[in-house]
Automatic annotation (TrEMBL):
SUPFAM superfamilies: Acyl-CoA N-acyltransferases (Nat). It comes from Cryobacterium cheniae. Keywords: Transferase. InterPro entries: Acyl_CoA_acyltransferase (IPR016181), GNAT_dom (IPR000182). One of its GO terms (molecular function) is acyltransferase activity, transferring groups other than amino-acyl groups. Residues 4-150 form the N-acetyltransferase domain. This is GNAT family N-acetyltransferase.
Length: 150
């Protein structure tokens, strides 16, 4: 496998990011209800959005949020969304992106990042646990809140 790199999300690569494929059953886990509700109040200035590129092909997307003033602790430094193309899953792309988000959080002075996911057989729970996230609670919608200490 070639070398992975990050690029800011831009007009040049957004179509490729939107076209990332999923494995069957994964579509239902893309955006937990909590994120859809919070999206109406998220500040675009706090968003950290990157694509992961391998051999000049977009193979992943990560959206983090850094808002130390958020009234919701789980949104102050969080992994908002991560998507790895079906063909690239299991090859370290997601870990690479999550590690970059964690490094950015450390650089900004955070001591942990959070993520929210919907439980389910085809869901991302095993992936987040593999990265080191620990379950710390649930949202009012029954989604799991995980935290990764930095």
């Amino acid at each position: 496998m070639g070398e992975l790199r990050l690029e800011d999300l831009s007009a040049r690569n957004i179509v490729a990011a939107n076209g990332l494929s999923l494995k069957p059953g994964q579509e239902q886990f893309i955006a937990p209800v909590s994120y859809a509700v919070a999206a109406s109040v998220i500040n675009p200035a706090t968003a950290w959005q990157r694509v992961v590129v391998l051999d000049d092909v977009v193979v992943g997307f990560i959206h983090g949020n850094f808002d130390p003033d958020s009234p919701h602790e789980e949104f102050r430094a969080c992994l908002w969304r991560i998507n790895v193309d079906a063909e690239a899953q299991g090859k370290g792309v997601g870990k690479f992106a999550a590690d970059a988000l964690a490094a950015e959080a450390r650089k900004r002075g955070f001591d942990h990042i959070t993520v929210i996911w919907e439980p389910g057989e085809e869901g991302p729970e095993a992936f987040f646990h593999h990265l080191g996230f620990s379950d710390i609670g649930q949202t009012v919608y029954g989604e799991t809140i995980g935290a990764l200490q930095l």
